[in-house]
Amino acid sequence: MKLILLLGIAALACGPMQAQFGDSGGVGGFGSGPVGQSQMDQSGNNLSQGIGFLPWLSVNGNYSRTLNADQLGIQGDRFMGSAAGGIGGTKSWENSSLTAGYLGSGTYNNLSFARSAERWRQSHVVNLGYGRQLNQRWQFRVSSFGGLSDGGFGIGSAYGSTGIPGLGGGFGLDTGSGGLEDPNQNGLVDNELLSSRVKFYAGRGAVSYRVSERLSVGAYGGASFARRTNGLNGLNSYNGGTGATYQLTRTTQVGANYTRTNLDYVGFFGGVHFDSAAVGVQKELSQRMRIMLQGGASRLSSTFIGSTPLAPDLAALLGVSNVLEVKQTKRITASGRAVLTYNTPSSHFNVGYDHGLAPGNGLLYASIRDVVNFGYGFPVGQKIGINFVANYYRMSGQVAVLRNSQSAQGGAMASYRLFRSVSATMQGGYRYISISGSKQQRDAYVGIGLAWRPADGPFIF
After folding, report:
1. Rounded-to-integer distance, Cα 337 and Cα 321, Å
2. pLDDT above 80: residue 299
3. What DSSP line would sit under 431-458, residue for residue?
């Protein structure tokens, strides 16, 4: 099974990276974990504003080259055609809000050695979130996120989430305030390194109670599931926890939380547990700038039962080739998260770092992950839109497979509005993948396309 043969730019969303205080590092409930529960404003109304739902469509032609193809023994030059579309947004009422989105894409490549099923790859992802203020003290929110994708979905996934270079994870999947955490950093399938198909779902519910004008407490729970092809591990995960937030000032909020997570690797083994505790602060530096800092510790515990091959002489003496091995793992690691966002009506900027426990990526099991991401989109005049993106993802296996995986990618996209809602796009980028003990892969690409979205101004992702 080859390393991914199509690269993409990830995290080029249609708006800022969502990092609401009280949300976890991702829909899957992994990463540094949630800190408390977000509060409403003093009137009891939801903080978000309804922005409506915007559809979009795009077609792209791309050329990619594996820079070290000779070392890997694979085809170095590839031409790919792709089409994608979706719709997403948020609708708010006096005491509630609804967030929903769909993203679908298909990519065809000309790999001469690929089977017909491998020439066409697709992705279909849906998200849904709903939050409601029940009265002056109680509020609840539910969210879900799922679909199927060849190569995963998220900032570190094999295809930049959509299989379309320049159209990254979450475009059209606005996270709003319905309780849905950022799909780009879901922690579940956002670091798939292979082109295998993965089906996934994550759901989460939370309830909070306002003790006073400044203090709120709450509880939350959720479940995540992933099923992968080609012999890669599947996952059942369940988590729950409690937290509290305190409004220090009009612009500053602090919080603390505890989360318990249970993992079961379907068809392999279970008995893996995460216990995480964290404290954090979120501050609005201005009307357009927000910073969130979070730190804590996580404890990993597992009991792994597997087989270990015996030396040939000993195997001949005992008459068996393998013996059962029971291995217990316990590890405490720091966890943390930092996010800075700056947004205007026509542009967005975000930079973030996340360190914590994660369930793995199909190759690795329970792991420590480090994620760094950057995104910046802005207009130039009335017709041109510019986007820059970069991210780095490292996974360090802690159970069964004690290897490391790394992926990094970066690139840029420019759009030029031809007429009304139609824009021409150009993109280029670079991607690097490595797994300890195996070869690396380095790719570069360029592409052109057309994009449509019913909105004024240049096309900014």
Report:
1. 46
2. yes
3. EEEEETTS--EEEEEEEEEEEE-S-SS-
Neighbours of 436 (CB within 10 A): 11
Is 80:160 a contact under the CB 8 Å cutoff? no
Q: pLDDT tens digits, residue range 65-108?
A: 888 888 888 778 888 888 888 888 888 898 999 989 888 888 88
- CA–CA dist 428, 449 (Å, integer): 12
* Domain 52-452 falls under CATH 3.40.630: no
- Chain-centroid distance, C-alpha 352: 13
Q: Which of 337, 390, 335, 393 is nearest to 364 (CA)?
A: 393
User: What is the per-residue DSSP string for 361-382?
Assistant: -SSS-SEEEEEEEEEEEEEETT
Q: What is the pLDDT of residue 110?
A: 62
Q: How many CB atoms lie within 10 A of CB 319?
A: 6
Three-state SS at 125: strand
Q: What are phi and psi of 26, to 5 degrees?
A: -175, 170
pTM, to two decimals: 0.80
